[in-house]
Structures are given as structure tokens and as C-alpha cells.
Amino acid sequence: AQKITQTQPGMFVQEKEAVTLDCTYDTSDPSYGLFWYKQPSSGEMIFLIYQGSYDQQNATEGRYSLNFQKARKSANLVISASQLGDSAMYFCLLLHMDTGRRALTFGSGTRLQVQP
Amino acid sequence: DAGVIQSPRHEVTEMGQEVTLRCKPISGHNSLFWYRQTMMRGLELLIYFNNNVPIDDSGMPEDRFSAKMPNASFSTLKIQPSEPRDSAVYFCASSLSGTLQETQYFGPGTRLLVL
Asked: Cβ neighbours of residue A56 under 8 Å, at least 6 residues apart?
């Protein structure tokens, strides 16, 4: 069975420091994708970054980077220079094929609080 | 680009009433997804469409839920009759095509409260 695990229900970080949000996954599919989404208190889901299983390099988008370790099946999100506006819920998602159909599996989320 | 548009943003209704949630995907996107988010279950994929055709509705909780996509720019999720346990935030998302490894863009969500 495909699954995705976020072991940190909550994290605190000081403003301007870097923080790593953990995500591990388990899939037997050779081709898959990993996403990180941010959900602020307003409820909207905001796409942050994507990593494909065949991508040679770790994905980066501005202050966001994905530490992709394929052998360990981990896809941790690194936020550099945290800002107060980064306080939100963060979800890791696994996109894969399941009996010919595309399937999305969600992690349980990590709530990040950035402190001044 | 206006992004994915959902309406209403908030809905309060009484148990037994019919509820219809609406979604307009990003223009040019061929895949549309309906999700439900609750504290207990987190994010759940309910159903998704590709080129207006329902591809997988295995996530729809029961027969009280139905979804349609009559054209490429509009979809509805209907709950009839509604129950208090349906209270949740319902998200609609769209993506460019039905291929693997693709970004989905979420709408702002509809907060549903069934009394």
C-alpha cells in the first residue's frame, strides 16, 4: 500500500532561521511525484514545490528546497530564512499510479509556527 | 488568470437539505478534482474528472454525494440529503492534463456547516 508519513505534528522556528519539515513515503511504483502544499489559516491550499522520482536534481523554488533522498524514501522540505508569513500547515503529497488510475496520498500535515 | 473559483465560500444549512457546491477550473485545464478536508480525516480525494469524464469516484463517501462536470469550465458537487457529519471544507482543484507528476492548483474552498 502506498503511504506517506509526516512525523512532526508541530514545529517552531525563529524568524530568519531555516527549518526542515520531514516527509517519508512508501510506494512500489517506479514513477511517482512528491508535492508540498502550504495551507495558511485562511484555508486555501498553496502549491510550493514538486519533485519527480526521476528528477536528477533536488527541486528548488525560491526559499523552498526539497531534500530528496530516493534510497531512503524521504522528501523533506527545507524553508530558508523563515518569515512570519510562513506560519501555516504544510502537507506532503505522494502522486502515483494505482491500478491504472492516478492517486494522491496525503500526509497528516505539520503545523509550522514562526516566532519573531 | 483568476485561478480556480469556488462558490459559495461559506454555506450553512440544516440537516436533510440539498447542498450544491460549484467549481470553475482554470481555463485550459483538463483535469478537475474534488477534495474534502476535516480535522479527523485530513484531506480526502473524493472524485476526479479528466476531459469532463469521471475517472475515479472511489473516494465518494456514499450515494448521497454526486458530482458532475457538464462542460470544461464548470463542475458541481451535490450532497442530498446533507448530514451534520458532512461538515467540512470542500476543495476543488484543477490541473493541465491527466498525466502523472503534475501540479494541481487548488481553489479557496467552501466551508460547509450542516446543522
From this structure: none
The pLDDT tens digits for A34-89 are 989 898 887 777 888 889 999 889 999 999 999 999 999 999 999 999 999 999 99
In angstroms, the first-to-last Cα distance of chain B is 36
How many other C-beta atoms can be found within 10 angstroms of the C-beta atom of residue B83?
Answer: 12
C-alpha distance across the termini of chain A, in Å: 41
Q: Which of A44, A53, A106 sits opposite B43 (nearest CB)?
A: A106
Q: What's the confidence (pLDDT) of residue B102? A: 62
Handedness of CA A5, A107, A116, A64 (dihedral sign): positive
CA nearest neighbour of A75 among A102, A96, A45, A97? A96
User: Which residue, among B99, B101, B110, B111, would best test binding to A if mutated, counting the most A CBs under 10 Å from its CB?
Assistant: B101
Residue of B nearest to A42 (CA): B108
Backbone angles phi, psi at A84, to 5 degrees: -60, -35
Are B105 and B94 in contact by the 8 Å Cβ rule? The answer is yes
| Separation between Cα atoms, residue B98 and residue B29, nearest integer Å | 9
